[in-house]
Amino acid sequence: MSVSGIVTKAAVAASITLALVGSGWGNEIKGKVSVQGIKSAENIAVYVDSMAEKKFEAPKDHVAVDQKKMAFIPHVVAVQQGATVDFTNSDPVGHNVYWPSISGNKKLAHNLGTWPKGEKKSFQFNDPGVAALLCNVHPEMSGYVVVAPTPYFAVTDKDGNFEIKNVPAGHYTLKTWSEDGKPTTQSVDLTTSGASVELTVKK
Ligand SMILES: [Cu+2]
User: Fold this and answer.
1) From ligand 1's centre to the CA of 93, what distance in Å?
2) Cβ-count burial of 87 within 10 angstroms (0-12 exposed, 13-18 middle, 19+ buried)?
3) Domain annotation covers residue 20
4) Residue 113 within any structural domain of the chain
5) Which pTM was predicted?
6) What is the domain extent for residue 172?
7) Residue 171 belongs to a domain with what CATH number?
8) 105-127 pLDDT per residue, tens
9) For the chain, is the Cβ count within 10 Å smaller at the N or the C terminus?
10) Domain count across the chain
């Protein structure tokens, strides 16, 4: 191969790399949620609201929710609309999983039944909103599946920090859901260098 051929190949490779960077993939919406009148900024779901012009395929990977030591683990899980959640019972007692509605819509209530240790049941969440998980054997058990309309979501850590990765550059509406606080909405402009967001969730 001639020297000019190598140079051309290198130039093509470089321009492909630039094109990928330019398309905005790999950006991050980072931020921190502060709370007012709520005891913890942990376990708050933050997600990019639905985009009218965009449809997303259901994710192939399943999401796991465990029932262990009489608790739903994680307590709050965010998933993409269309995701399948595998509910596993890891306790030596029978647990049930049901939710009385999804975001108040009782038509979307569902009872998966009761099953013993080591077994799991799966459910595909096709409707966006929040399913409040309950176990009819143990009334003290509760958990939440937050079904986001986009693949762009996170749940805050104990200090309220979150990171939503691999978001294309654009203008978005960011929403929060919290067990104890009111939902919040904030617009965010995501550039190719990412975005940093401060949110406040109030009682
Ligand atoms: Cu239970």
Assistant:
1) 8
2) buried
3) no
4) yes
5) 0.87
6) 27-51+157-203
7) 2.60.40.1120
8) 999 999 999 999 999 999 999 99
9) N
10) 2
